[in-house]
Amino acid sequence: DVLDPERLIQCPLVKHHRIRARRFPYHLVKCKESNPEIAKTLATCPFNARHLVPHADLSDHIMKCNDKAFVEQDVVTWSCEPPQEQLNNGSPWQAPLCAEDWET
């Protein structure tokens, strides 16, 4: 189960490290600091910072990364034009009525 916070994940820096999913981001930060030479050999995926892959494999990983679909979906959503009626009428937002009279 991918969504289980208790599942164990193998560290990409030190293969014998197995970390619970909920602690994995914190472990990556500490493990990179403790192993700077290994960290230099790995590249971070632009779609998910938890994905560390060898520099030579980054382009292949980017093509196959499952998290790319989420980013592409967001790009498509943001690039869609608003309905024509909304463009003609301007913003549909209206200020709420106020019962206060500042003049009195």
What does it look like?
This is GTSF1 factor. GO terms for molecular function: zinc ion binding. The chain has a domain at 8-67. Helices cover 39% and strands 12% of the residues. The protein is built from 5 helices and 4 strands; from the N terminus they run ββααββααα. A hairpin with a 7-residue loop joins β1 (8-10) and β2 (18-20). The longest helix has 12 residues, at 68-79. The N and C termini lie far apart (64 Å). 3% of the residues are buried. The mean pLDDT is 84.
Explain briefly what this protein structure is.
The chain is an alpha+beta fold and 104 residues long. The chain has five helices and four strands, in the order ββααββααα.
